[in-house]
Amino acid sequence: SVSQKTHLNLQRRPAAHMPKARALTHFLAFASSRSSMAASMAAMSTSASGAAMDGEWDEAAGVWRGNRAVDAGVEVPDPLVIFGYGSLCWRPEPSFGEGASYPCRVSGWGRFFAQRSTDHRGTPKSPGLVATMLSDAQLEAIGLREAGVPPSSTIGMGYEIATESAEGVLADLDFREKGGYTREVVLVQPLAGGEPVKALLYSATPDNPNFDKTMLDPDAVRDDSL
């Protein structure tokens, strides 16, 4: 009868459609995993504080994409100490708070005015010039330092950051140093004595697009209109 056929069809339909149901389930699971993977990859492109991980460059603005310094995967000192070698020496960020600060020295690194700036000291059409820190190894790699000579030495300021302020300080500095800078961790020696301290500094390395090697080479022809 019709009712019997309908009953049989209703009984058979779930079995007949099981492959499609499984396919749909697998597709949804796959789509979900792809979505999760994309989200994970996006999260991996920035650090917890927002610093860029991949160093992709925004040519038009003359800064790292995302308006953040490059993280480079360094382990941020805990407790956090910031090594300032330029304007931070006399004008620390307000977010630094009231923690201890002291003059200190870092060995194996030199301070140079060799970084073009399109945000702090200039514009994309007329970049200014700001300071950076370069390691002796970096200088040797670009042919501006001979191996075996005594290490460089630079005096700056160390700033101890309270644990509850560390995340905000990193976010402020990552944004401030978006114009070609990368996080680096160094050992600094307080001038008053005591044990060396791990500190975070921001370095505009020779491979960033705003680096101006001619400012380090007295024999090179400089084009200050760049």
Automatic annotation (TrEMBL):
GO terms for biological process: glutathione catabolic process. The keyword Protease does not apply. GO terms for molecular function: glutathione specific gamma-glutamylcyclotransferase activity. Keywords: Lyase. Its EC number is 4.3.2.7. The keyword tRNA processing does not apply. GO terms for cellular component: cytoplasm. InterPro entries: ChaC, GGCT-like, GGCT-like_sf. This is glutathione-specific gamma-glutamylcyclotransferase. It comes from Florenciella parvula.
